[in-house]
Each structure stands twice: as C-alpha cells, then as structure tokens.
Amino acid sequence: MTKEEIETLAQNLRAKKVCETHTSWVILTGEFAYKIKKPVDFGFLDYTTREKRKRYCLAELKLNRRLVPEIYLGVLGIDKNYRFTEINSPAVIDYAVKMKELPQEALMTSLLKRKKVNFSQVKEIAQIVANFHNGLSQTKNSERYGRLDIIRYNWEENFNQTENFVGKTISRKRYEEIKRKIYSFMEENKELFGQRIREKKIKFCHGDLHSQNIFLLDKPYIFDCIEFNPRFSCSDTASEVAFFLMDLEFANSHHLADYFLDHYLQLTKDFSLLRLLTFYKAYRAYVRGKVISFRLKEKGIGKGERLKIRNLARRYFRESERYTLSLFKKPKVLVFFGPPASGKTTLAEEIRKREEGILLSTDILRKDLLNLPIEEHLPAPFGKGIYQKEITQKTYEELIKRAKEYYLQKRSVFLDGTFSNPYYRDLLRKEIGSSSIFWLLSRAPKRLILKRLRRERKYSDAHPEIYLKMVKAYQSLASLKPIFLNTKRKLRENIRKILSRIKNCE
Fold first, then answer.
1. What Rg value do the Cα atoms of the chain yield, rounded?
2. What is the 3-state secondary structure (H, E, C) of 371-431?
3. pLDDT of 134-144, one tens digit each?
4. How far are the Cα atoms of 60, 195, 283 from residue 131, in angstroms, in the given order?
5. C-beta separation of 247 from 260 below 8 A
6. Angstrom distance (rounded) from CA 322 to CA 356
7. What is the pTM of this model?
8. Which of 114, 160, 420, 421 has its CA 20 to 30 A from that of 193?
9. How many Å apart are CA 388 and CA 6, to the nearest integer?
10. DSSP state for residue 166 in the 8-state scheme
11. Residue in 358, 381, 345 with CA at minimum distance from that of residue 459
C-alpha cells in the first residue's frame, strides 16, 4: 500500500493518529491499533510481495501471543475499498495486524525519561523474561544461530554496513578499535560460545527486547518481537538480556539494569551468561548506532533533525566502544562501605556508570528478601524492625553468596553496604580472596552526616541513632588497607581517586 492509501484507510477508520517507521505504518483509533507492513526490502527484511506480508503478519501474531495474547487480536485483510475483510478473501490487497491499543504515555521509554519506572516494575519484567526464556527450548533449527561463524557474520555485516558512516556518526579510530577488539574476543573465546550451545541457551527469543517495546500499566506488556529474520530473533539468551540492560544503561538507569540482571540470574541460575554479557552489550549498542545512522539516508529530513540523528548514533557507538574496551579488563570486587549517610551509595552508583559489572546493595537486597517495596521507608531503632540481627545476617550472607557467583563468572561486582561487622568483612575475604577486593571507606564530618540523615534518602532507612551506634565499628581497619574517601570533597575528586587506584592495579 502507498502512503495515500494508508491515509484513506485511516480516514475510513476515523483514526486519531498514524505512526510511521521505516518498515510499517501503525493506525491508532483509540481502541485498536492496526499495523500494516511497508513493501520494502532491506536485505535482512523483505516485505516486497503481498504473500510475504501475509506470512509475516501471521508470524507476528503467533510469536507475540507467546507473551501478550491479550494485545495481539488477529490478522485482517484490506480490500480495494480500504476497509477490513477476511484474510482469505479474493478482494484482499494487503494485510494488517490488529492489536489492542495501549496509551503511548505508558511506554517504558517515556517513563524512564520522566524517572517514573520503579524497582517493582523491573522485578516483574525480570520474572516475565526469565519465565519466558526458561519455557523456551533450544532446537536443531535455533542452535545454529549460536555458532561462532553466524555471530562473526553478524558483526561483519555491522562493520560493512557502517563503513559509509565512518567520519559521520563514528570516527575511523573508534570503528577500527571496536573491530579489532571484537575479533580478538571472538578468537580468544571460541570455547565459550560452544559452551553456551551445549548448555542449550540458543533459543527463538523476543529479539527486540528494549524499553520502546514495553508498556507499563497494571503489569508489563512486552510486545513487537522480531518475526522477519531468525538470525535476529534466534540467539543466545545472553544477547537478549544484554539488549535490555544496554537500553536501561543508555537511559542512565544503571540501578534498574543491575536490579533486573540480579533477579533474572536468581530465577534462571544461568550464571555463565555473565561471561558474554559485555560482548553482547557492545553488539546491541553498535546495532542501534547503525540503525539510527541509516535514517540519514531518508529524504526530507531537515538540518536540525539530521544533527539529532548524528548525535544519537554517535552516543550509541561511544557506548559500544566503552563496552568493547571492558572485554579484557580483569574482574574485581569493589566494596563501598562506611557508616550510614557517609556517601558510599552515591560513589558506588557513579563508579558503576563508568565501569562494567553489577552493583549489589544491602539496602535493596534486605527489602527484597523480606518481599517489601524498595521505595518504602521503614525506619526502626538500631537492631530492630528490618534491621534485626537475623535479618541483617541473612542479607549479608546472601549478598556475599551472589557476589561470589557473579565474580566466578569473571564479572566485576560492586557492593554497597555498611559492613560494620568484621565478621562479614572476613566472610567476603574468605569467599572471594583478599587480593581481588578493593575496600573503599566513605567518611564525612559527623555534622554533615547527621544533616544528611535528616533528609529522606533513596533506599536506606537509617537515622541518627543508627549512625551513632555504628560509627565506632570503623576504628580498626588496618588489615583491609582501605582507600579512604572524604565525601565532603567534590564528587568528581573521589571518582578520579577511585578510578586511578583501580587502573594502577589492573
């Protein structure tokens, strides 16, 4: 169908809006959404014939019903009068996927921009994705897409298709650096890709798992999976998880990314996924940079819009390079500890934005283990309420257990907790090994800490009484050889100090 014909169909439907992408039109009526595929051929996607569009509409319906059957309602034919009819009618000139329309303001991408996504929602997404992946099986047809020759082909396609954008959205130096390190990683980790096939982790997944394809309403609705090319939808589940994590990190929501990953791992027990996670994050960021760069070829785009496209593509390519440069770094454990309100959480979160790994927090884990909302504040006297000795012990032991599981898979781990009890510090050293741990002790003047404690804080429920009871626990730390951080100083000074110490030990 042409754009004019789509407009006629929209008028007949009394549509409120027509959305256009490079592959389809979506007509919104307020109650239903109708998706019509464009007659285009991009090599990896071919909708050029009516029969192909019919086949892919039916495939889209079938595959998306795995996750959201309540949204995907059916496939309709479109007749020459631009009205809907049965798909097998001789009058059909094209096809549409009929969906229940959901409010655009509930798209996760929009909510992330407004800081309206919470831990509970991310936990639900983790449960949905974990259950979805656990319910899929690797088949003879799907396992070939986990082979290194296919993965290498995907990267070669990326590099070939972005060659013309060198100097426009990606510099020659960045292009060559990513290329060199990616090929080196694949060459040095052949066995790891084979291991994932043997573990049966190559499955027909969603294929396009990111926040633009998730509605957050009474529950998460994950839609619009890839139906047009099994090379993109059949993959290691690590690649699918990496896409969602990369998307969250790109939206500056690393805390939500780590929370998702931690839950997903505990539900699937797929810990070897961690060894390929950064590799696939680099891949997903590169693909996003490539696809956005393609938009520069479209006609009728103004100068201002072209500048936005270039800048966005450059951001994704920079992210891909950042991930790529992390592939050969030695894993480490950074412990951000100290009294309540000493600034350790802020430092931990800022370092995590700059370093690949996973951040685990006692404040978050404590409430998770008690099945309490992370955002809910539950202050209690020292050693009472959710800070009872038994709960604290369970929290730290679980924190250290998870840290060890992830570290053994060559993943850097960042821990955020008071670690006031030497027993837990000794337990961590016993489980991980002292040589791999950096102890980062946050300190600040008493007056400043008490001022901070009087303000509402992110996840912690600590208050002045707890600080005063706990502060003496940090007087004998010589054996840890901690890095002392005065959080009265500017944040960037402490960040620079931490990164410098880490670099010197690599």
1. 25
2. CCCCCCCCCCCCCCHHHCHHHHHHHHHHHHHHHHHHHCCCCCEEEECCCCCHHHHHHHHHH
3. 999 999 999 99
4. 20, 22, 24
5. no
6. 9
7. 0.93
8. 160
9. 64
10. B
11. 345
